[in-house]
Amino acid sequence: MATDGSANSGLDLTMTAMLSGLVDSYRQMPMAMNRYVTVILVPSAVFFLVSVGAAMLLDLPLMIRGPIPLLGLLAVGSAVFYPKILLSQRKKELNNQFHLVVTHMTVLATTNIDRMEVFRRLAEQDEYGEMAAEVGRVVELVDTWNQSLDDACRRRAKEVPSDAVSDFFDRLGYTLGAGQALDDYLLSEQEQIIQNYKTVYQGTLDNLEVMKDLYLSMILSMTFALVFAVVLPVLTGTNPTMTVSAVITLYVFVQSGFYLAIRSMAPHDPVWYHPTDKPSPVDEKLQKATVAGTGLSVLLLVFSLLGIVGVSPVGLNDVVFFVDPLPLPMYAAIPITPLLIPGIVIRQEEQKIKARDGEFPSFIRALGATEGAKQSTTSTVLESLRKKDFGPLTDDVDNLYKRLNMRIETTEAWRHFTAECRSYLIQTFSEMYLIGREMGGSPKLLGELISENMNEVLQLRQSRSQATTTLIGLLYGITAASTFAFFIGLQVVNILASMSLDLQTGSSDFDVGTLINTEVYNIPLIEFLLIVIIMFGAMLSALMVRTVDGGHKANTFVHFVALTWIGAITGALTKWLVSQFLAI
Predict the structure, then answer these.
(1) CA of 447: how far to CAs of 116, 264, 404, 441, 527, in Å?
(2) CB of 50 within 8 A of CB of 72?
(3) Which of 10, 42, 206, 547 is most deeply packed, by most CB within 10 A?
(4) What's the CA gap between 137 and 430, in Å, rounded?
(5) Longest Cα pair distance anywhere in the chain, in angstroms?
(6) What does 273-334 look like in DSSP terms, one character per residue?
(7) Using CA atoms, how far apart are residues 165 and 200, in angstroms rounded to an integer?
(8) Residue 539: CB partners within 8 Å, gap ≥ 6?
(9) CA dist., res. 155 & res. 158, Å (int)
(10) How far apart are CA 541 and CA 479, in angstroms?
(11) Which candidate, 295, 351, 350, places its Cα nearest to that of 554?
């Protein structure tokens, strides 16, 4: 009885905490709570009641009426928990930008500007998103409501949904109230701040590991369901196209839900920097590769469609002359293969960006140390540094020196440098160094601070790369296994159909159709549906990889083509093997 009481007590505490968190999310919404209830909650509840009434009153089969209340329930659930989802998104955005904002704040604090000016400048940095908005709220409390900076920080610490940001604001407010300088506090707290960021970042990667296990179990379950939907109508005589379509629809919802969940969990740490006003030779190369890949893909798609419908005498069978007849899955894989052209080009450029990221900490540390020792300008220091080997970053450093030596404005020269590097981290930390130097900061201190922080981010990226590698292996394995299962079921049905036809023509005394219902099957249509779900799974799997790894959007093409080919080859080989083993 004591055990039951403690379990009930624990459950009560969990429910209380959940309700308290939900109420708090309503309180922190941008919209007033009474307005949200009137505009959102009440109409969703009315819609739910209408859906229940429709399910009870409409004269339709139960299979059609049954899901109607579920739609209303989904609307109510979405309306009730939307503020909680919104608050969770805010927390994620704050955690994603927290480390960069604090590093930027430290750089500004070490210069010769007032501490309130540090906050004002950070609030103007739109690229920091929700974190910049939170700093802006601190500034508003000071400038508009005449509160002290320490009181404003402590007040916002009670409102922010992120524990890391709340703890930082709380300690910052206490320290400033005690009279410690902002730069002293931030420099002494660097290690603690980095550890907080690493904990949050690693926590998101751990959550992704859990999601991978859930995804594996759910996709295997859906695979079994789809195989049963293909095979069972042989015995039941139901319409297999309807059952397969229903399971495929559920399959699509499950995969889409996992993709959205992974997208919401993955840390925001992009590899690429996309300047709008500074063109780069990389842009032209990517544009040409994209046009070439897309054009060839469209051309092969036209060949494929015309060959299938028999309108044109030239089809994929004529292009791929060494395989006759061409398996149906190949009609899906071959037309998208040219998308590898932009995918491979972008992948190569991305590897160069990552290599530049690896060299930048040593470059910025050397630049800051040499500038501080020689007490000279950046262009003078770069004259010697450009002769050193910084790997893929060497040419960019040389171009930066040439622009500064040509008396191009310093800010513009650095902006061209970051545009050519195309790296999000290099752009962010270069901007910090540039602003710090313009405001009189110590170059040696700036170089060491930026180098140390960037090295920590690069170490976290290595963990992220390992998580991406395991995800890729999982997705490739699931694609091959599920396709194998799909086509085994399809080919077994296909063989049973030919067997029943032979038995019916050979004996008039026994009706095989009473045991094996193969006449309800449209094998080409079901095979087409299976190919569609394989391609859809390949697309979402490629998007998952891109989301976890933080690379360029077009990097999706490589995995999309590879996964589609794995599905096509596995499907074609499975059909051939089953035919060889079960052929009579």
Answers:
(1) 24, 34, 19, 10, 60
(2) yes
(3) 547
(4) 27
(5) 104
(6) ---SSS--HHHHHHHHHHHHHHHHHHHHHHHHHHHHHT-SS--HHHHSTTSSSPPTTHHHHH
(7) 11
(8) 556, 560
(9) 6
(10) 9
(11) 350
As given in the structure block, the two tokens for residue 479 are: 């694609």
**Calpha distance 381→374 (Å, rounded):** 8
d(CA 190, CA 455): 13
Alpha-carbon gap, residue 371 to 448, rounded angstroms: 12
Q: Helix, strand or coil for residue 550?
A: coil
Which two tokens mark 580?
């060889």
pLDDT at 61: 61
d(CA 381, CA 396): 15
Distant-in-sequence, close-in-space partners of 474: CB < 8 Å, separation ≥ 6: 212, 215, 216
- Compute φ and ψ for 536, nearest 5 degrees: -65, -45
DSSP 270: -
Residue 533: partners with Cβ closer than 8 Å, 6 or more residues away: 226, 248, 251, 252, 486
**What amino acid is encoded at 447 in this protein?**
G
Q: Which two tokens stand for residue 275?
A: 């300047």
Q: What is the mean pLDDT of each run of 10 residues along the chain (584 residues)?
A: 53 66 77 84 89 80 66 83 84 87 90 89 89 93 91 92 89 90 86 84 88 90 88 79 84 87 86 82 86 91 71 52 68 90 93 94 92 83 87 91 86 90 93 89 90 92 92 94 91 76 50 61 87 93 93 91 95 87 62
CA distances from 271 to 196, 346, 354, 452, 548 (A): 22, 12, 7, 19, 11
Matching residue, tokens 């751990």: 206
Return the residue matching tokens 């093997």. Answer: 577
Determine the Cα–Cα distance for residues 59 and 567; give it in Å rounded to an integer.
Answer: 43
Phi-psi label, residue 146: left if phi above 0, alpha if psi -120 to 50, beta otherwise: left
The rounded distance, in Å, linking the Cα atoms of 101 and 103 is: 5
Element (H, E) at 572: helix 556-582
Where do we find the tokens 């992220």? Answer: 464
* CA–CA dist 516, 524 (Å, integer): 19
Residue 530 CB neighbours (<10 A): 24
Token pair 């995800």: residue: 471
Q: How far is CA 105 from CA 153, 249, 366, in A?
A: 14, 49, 22
Write down the pLDDT at residue 322: 47
State the amino acid at position 341 in one-letter form.
Answer: I
Q: Which of 287, 456, 472 is nearest to 357 (CA)?
A: 456
Q: b/e for 108-136, b at 16 or more Cβ within 10 A? A: bbbbeeeeeebbbbbbebeebbbbbebbb
Within 13 Å, how many C-alpha atoms sit on residue 150's CB side? 12
Query: How much is the pLDDT for 187?
Result: 87
Burial 274-293 (b: 16+ CB within 10 A, else e): eeeeeebebeeebeebbeeb
Question: pTM value?
Answer: 0.84
